[in-house]
Amino acid sequence: MSEIKVLDQQTINQIAAGEVIERPASVVKELVENAVDAGASAVTVEIKDGGISFIRVTDNGCGIPKDQVPVAFLRHSTSKIRSALDLMTVSSLGFRGEALSSIAAVGQVELVTRVTGALTGTRYVIWGGEEKSIEEIGAPEGTTFLVRNLFYNTPARKKFLKTAQTEAGYVSVLLERMALSRPDISFRLIVNNQTKLHSAGNHKVKDLLYQLYGREITSNLLPVTAEGELLKISGFIGKPILSRGNRNYQHYFINGRYVRSSIVSKAIEDAYQGKLMQHKYPFTVLYLTIDPNLIDVNVHPTKMELRFSDNEQVYKEVFAAVQTGFSGKELIPQVTVGKDEPTKDVLPKKETLTEQKKQDTAQSVNRPKIASITPAQIQKTVRAPEPFEYNRRVQMMVRETGGYETEAVVAPEQSKDNIRVNVAPKTTYESHKPTVNEPIQEAKKPEQLNLFEEKILTQTARMKYRFIGQLFDTYWLIQFGNEFLIMDQHAAHEKILFERMMKKLKSRQEIFSQSMNPPAIITLSAVEEDILNRHMTEFKHAGYEIEPFGGKEYALYGVPADLPKINGEEFFRELIDRLGESGVSDSTLILETIASMSCKAAVKGNHMMSLPEAEKLVDELMTLENPYSCPHGRPTIIRISKAELEKKFNRIV
Fold it and tell me: Cα(495)–Cα(514) distance, rounded to whole angstroms?
């Protein structure tokens, strides 16, 4: 055996750095968290070469006194805690005291800082953990960190970094999460001298979400507000239409800290159960506030994980908050016919408007003045998504006429997102000249953020339904005003059976069994036996009659009476398998699993239904708590607007 020796300090520092600093994004994370803890209201991050060659983090926080600067770079030096007892009530983002020492161990670091009220600042240089210089310098209040040539002294670790573009992407994702976690702080990200992110820091989460993710996501968000025994929860959840193939859009912050928690993730995803397809995950931005005494954040070196003192209560409160967010909301997805057009911003960028104005001016200079607007100009149907667009077009026409008496003036005929320009009686421009506070005639702004002015699945709306017929023996076509509805008869019937069964199971109503004669003899493995015995009460309550038959065999005497078309033995085995895969233990989740399996008795596609049967299906669908999707997440009804169809037939442009 080799001799045991204590490692030298440099090696110790590099090993510690390996736990905290994995890539440039790790450096940015630690420095930005320190800036937030320093009380900064504005933080700027600038990187070059993905952060490998250059990182600069500037804040307007409280700064570091000169005599404390060298101490800040020692291992386990921190201003956030004083003893082990403080670890139980940590409220700051950083506290372990390893960030600066770890960064300095693998990079060339320069620090410029000035505390509030001081006349001069301090410049401190440390490379690879070795001090180079410390001096007074003129500097603004706050702190600036420059980190150059990351991993210059550990080439073995540097070669495992990704491309500069990929590393810059990690930094961008990190800054987005930091901006979401603290909407009261202005964050700016500059990549290779180009600004990629700049949040306002105005406390408005929805404005920030619009900036980060655009109109499509922002217009499909539902607010969440709840307060329970342990948690205070606020934020937004996405409608099921925003589902994604991974958890990258599942954001939740606990006491202002972005973390990963299997308990919170499971609660969110279980609340979406039945609204999303399998292997799809929801979009969420939730803020959870909890007593620091009830969590342990000292679990992982990067502070990305934590533990709760009461996992079950946290699960219940998050689950209930998300479910409440869906209460009373209509979730029928609107679809487009053919290829979707790219979503445009509600308002174009300033640069776009400026360039357009220059083009308009140049065109008007070279354009001869005309005395009237031609019929071709008048009758053309134009796209005008915003009021300013209409006003701009009118002003262009006025410039063309030079303010002379015209044959006609334009007036908007609003129809959702289109405006048809009509001919009005002969008049003069002066008589319709707008005042400062009164535009010519402002077109009504399309209400794109409020998709459903009138709910579709209500008894009142039901009176306006006109059934067109059945398509492919599977889909029912229904006209409702200017909406074209398509109902999947199988998905709709599945959901009806599911909620009917759940209602019986939850209310402990008597569920009759259908006898199996002769009984099915089923052999179960040790794991399957354990699942059956643990949940025997739920099985019997759901209408199953099963008794031990000796050894590992069980006799299945009866199945729920609501499942007349299902092979009892095959269904029972599939249910056992489903419970084993999910690992569920909560009685409500077990009942949901049983009910979702029970919907296999639903009417299938390629089945001819009569009109009275379809009408009865719609009537029953309207009585459900969540009629918008089947238990597996597929929509029961989709809708297509009349305007969308007219676009496809070129009736409107």
Answer: 22
Burial level of 88, CB count in 10 A (0-12/13-18/19+)?
middle
Q: Are the CB atoms for 102 and 157 separated by under 8 Å?
A: no
Do the beta carbons of residue 333 and residue 452 sit within 8 Å? no
The superfamily CATH assigns to domain 9-198 is Histidine kinase-like ATPase, C-terminal domain (3.30.565.10)
3-class DSSP state of 262: helix
Residue by residue, what is the 3-state secondary structure of 126-148? EECCEEEEEEEECCCCEEEEEEE
Report the amino acid identity of residue 41.
S
The residues, ordered by sequence, that sit 6+ positions from 30 with a Cβ below 8 Å of its Cβ are 20, 21, 94, 99, 100, 102, 103
Domain ranges of the chain: 9-198, 205-326, 350-432, 459-653
Spatial separation of the C-alpha atoms in residues 30 and 22, rounded to whole Å: 12
CA distances from 463 to 121, 481, 619, 620 (A): 75, 11, 11, 14
Structural contact between residues 365 and 396, judged by C-beta atoms closer than 8 angstroms: no
Q: Are 455 and 409 in contact (CB under 8 A)?
A: no
Whose CA is closest to 641, among 474, 457, 451? 451
Are 555 and 546 in contact, with CB atoms under 8 Å apart? yes
Looking at CATH, the fold of the domain delimited by 205-326 is given as: Ribosomal Protein S5; domain 2 (3.30.230)
DSSP string of 601-613, one letter each residue: GSPPSS----HHH
- DSSP letter (8 states) at residue 438: B
DSSP state of 373: -
Is 3.40.30.10 the CATH number for 459-653?
no
Confirm if 409 and 423 have CB atoms less than 8 A apart: no
What is the mean pLDDT for each group of 10 consecutive residues in the chain (653 residues)? 65 60 90 91 95 95 90 69 46 60 90 92 92 92 94 86 90 93 94 93 91 86 92 92 84 88 89 81 92 74 73 90 82 66 41 45 44 42 41 48 40 41 39 40 41 65 86 88 88 85 73 81 82 83 85 85 62 75 59 66 80 88 83 84 86 79
